[in-house]
Amino acid sequence: MKKQSLLMKFYLIVVFLLMYLPIFYLILFAFNRGDYMTSFTGFSLRHFATMFADTRLMGILLNTFIIALLSSLVATLVGTFGALGIYLLKRRNLQNVFLGLNNILMVSPDVIIGASFLILFTMAGLALGFGSVLIAHIAFSIPIVVLLVLPKLNEMDSALIRAAQDLGARPYQVLSYVILPYIWTGIMAGFFMTITYSLDDFAVTFFVTGNGFTTLSVEIYARARQGIDLSINALSALMFLVSLVLVIIYYFIANHKQKGSGKHKRATVNQQLGGGVQ
Amino acid sequence: MTQPIIEFRNVVKKYDDHVVLNGVDLEIDAGKFYTLLGPSGSGKTTILRLISGFLDASSGDILFDGKRINDVPAEKRQVNTVFQNYALFPSMNVYENVAFGMTLRGVAPAQIKTKVTEMLELVKLKGFEEREIDELSGGQQQRVAIARALANDPKVLLLDEPLSALDYKLRKEMQYELRAIQQRLGITFIFVTHDQEEALAMSDWIFVINDGEVVQNGDPIDIYDEPINHFVADFIGEANIIPGTMVADNLVHFNGQDFKNVDGGMRPNEPVEVVIRPEDVDIVSVEAGAVTVRIDTVSFRGDYFEITASDMDHHEWQIQSTNGVEEGSRVGVTFDPEDIHIMRLNETEEDFDARLEAYDEE
């Protein structure tokens, strides 16, 4: 038994090392004093300085974050109401049809989605740039939100809705007082999840960025092709850190259920929601 | 005669071809404790939801205070519901839950506070205002749910099997309390349950529902003592049901013997079913008994023994006795003429009531 668990641990360590080694290797050289990834000659932050001094890069960074935030906001809004719509459909098979359509978007290759958006925008005569990237990001983010919000809705006791109506709540009051507080963790999880998806999306973005507009992942790709510049490593390190923070936030939101809320203290919205219904 | 607060006139509810309620007529008077009693799937919860407005009747009229309310949405009806699993809002604390209905109506905060305090006192949860729902036990959640529904000042309170999730002792306690609350407030309660004991203990009036129809309605004693048919006799408590024939008024033949009884108004030699409650059967010596039986099983129930026995015709007898007997022994059983209740086969409730009335007048 013990031997087996040792083997399992060893296996896990190897797998995670294999997955994270390239990233840590990349990040390590962000702190290299030298200009190449061939040898680590000493610790230095100069590549970070170069990166921050690069106004074009900083502009792209800003664009990337604006796109991520805006697309996540819109997608969260649309996705939440989409999930509500699917939830409120009375016919079970119709629900499955919509959920299926939603899931197809989740699993279909980014390249396909990107290419189809390119065709769509070209046909519609829409100039490629900020707008097209934003629309594309919103589009691929919505299914993620639906997928995270819908389970919360299904988990909710439908008697809660009846109870609210019974006490005199109109439909919008049922939504704002009962349903939204209940699915709030799902909505927030969806929001943060879509931010991470938007931040690091390359394939879809690559198709729909025009000449003047670009996001970080596309820029990194372009620069990496041109040659080795360790400020890209610095940038990657920064992105990795941001993603890590977002994942941690997401993790805490999603796992609040397991954490007991403190006794007798006025709990936060999240904690109350984490309690679930009896 | 006062106007009933709720009236159903030939109400039918069906989903596609599946009939859930098959022409229900009922009248609910203000200020009484009613119970809709029936097995699961009988349609009792459907009746409740038609009253609260969560379901629409397929046909028929539902009247509230004499006005048709079929088309009035749930949030505008003067009824409130206590749900089976309480349905308390997990994102709100006890105070906010109880205050919810008033908050929606825009009642002044000071007034809300007074009412919430009053309601929590009523359900014995004073001082629980700031508690979160997930910190409460099942029984406490139940009380909050009752307080929340009553805080809306409903004319009728609907209770959808609210005690089914509680343990036996707590359930008993809540039965007394619910009854006390109802009498104190004078509000009409309509209580749905499949638990006949609960129904008998709490109600002023019981509607026995089966297969989407009101099978019998009456006060608990009538329903228990004068069940209309096999279903009611069997569903309400334990019963020995024996086929027999009504030889003449006050004389019934079963188990190969004639017995005196107190029923009548039937055709001579009409086939009937005879009901004798287990607690009305007395165990005596073989010589003194009306029927000789062999004791099959004896099980101790704390305050009484539950005994099953079989007679020479292989009818099974259920007997409740305060004294134990030996398994396998032969004893006599006896019962008084008034313990014998006769049920006609396929008698409607109307005919049943008419016959009882006609017979009582004689």
List keywords for this structure.
heterodimer, A: 278 residues, mainly alpha, MetI-like fold, 12 helices, 77% helix, 0% strand, B: 362 residues, alpha+beta, OB fold (Dihydrolipoamide Acetyltransferase, E2P), 3 domains, six-stranded mixed sheet, globular
Secondary structure elements and pairings:
The complex is a heterodimer of chains A (278) and B (362).
Chain A: H1 2-30, H2 46-53, H3 55-88, H4 92-107, H5 110-124, H6 130-155, H7 159-166, H8 171-200, H9 203-208, H10 216-226, H11 230-254, H12 269-275
Helix pairs in contact in A: 1-11, 2-11, 3-6, 3-8, 4-6, 6-8, 7-8, 8-11, 8-12
Chain B: E1 6-15, E2 18-28, E3 33-37, H1 44-52, E4 59-64, E5 67-68, E6 79-82, H2 94-105, H3 109-122, H4 138-150, E7 156-160, H5 168-185, E8 188-193, H6 196-202, E9 205-210, E10 213-218, H7 220-225, H8 230-235, E11 240-248, E12 251-254, E13 257-260, E14 270-276, E15 282-284, E16 291-300, E17 305-311, E18 316-321, E19 330-334, E20 341-344, H9 349-361
Parallel strand pairs in B: 3-8, 3-9, 6-7, 7-8
Antiparallel strand pairs in B: 1-2, 1-4, 4-5, 9-10, 11-12, 11-14, 12-13, 14-20, 15-19, 16-17, 16-19, 17-18
Helix pairs in contact in B: 2-3, 2-4, 3-4
